[in-house]
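User: Batch of two.

Assistant: Item 1 of 2:
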Amino acid sequence: MSAKAVGDVFDHSPYHGDTLVIQLAIADVVNDVYEHRLWMYRDQIALKANVSLATVRRALHQFVEDGVLEVLAPGGGRSKQTEYRYHLYQGQPDPVY
């Protein structure tokens, strides 16, 4: 679990609705010790975020396109998970409470 990544989503994410929930589900499993890497099957993300697999696919594509996720090693079907690196929103001002 990455409290830093989850907090970063709450503080800086431009997404809303299902896409935001998917981003939170992903941020929750980011590994801070290993350079913000994560390994998760799409169906696991869908289950955790309570959304369809098609919604997860669209969100992942958007995250990669926007630079939120970086594909480090593509997966292959059900036997191999895709490895991603989660990028925190750097250069964003800290929220004022």
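Item 2 of 2:
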Amino acid sequence: MQALAWTILGVHATIIAFNVAGLVLIPLGAWRNWRWVRGFWWRLVHLLILAAVAAQALAGRACFLTLWQYDLSGNRNSRPLIAGWIDKLIYWPLPLWFFTALYVAVWLYVAFLWWRVPPRLPWHRHGH
């Protein structure tokens, strides 16, 4: 079970890194005219993941990955160093209302980016 908890922690950290990278790279890429930041499918996944995070928070629920990882981790005091470090990076000891406000604000920002830096629709060809 510990290996599965580690896997979930790794997946969770990867998703968080993807989401944070998108928050920075979309406006930077728009400013620098990077075409890839307008890719439809990754932008849609980014928008939907953050919508799910905000919806879970608005419903008063923690992320399901957080719950699974905590349930599977067993004795949290005997975690290896790297897992403990990632745990502290991801799980902040703050009240749920803080995360709700943060996640909704982040989703609103991503929705704004969808409008301000619109993705290319996959069924429309641009250019040549």
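The chain is about 70% helix and 0% strand.
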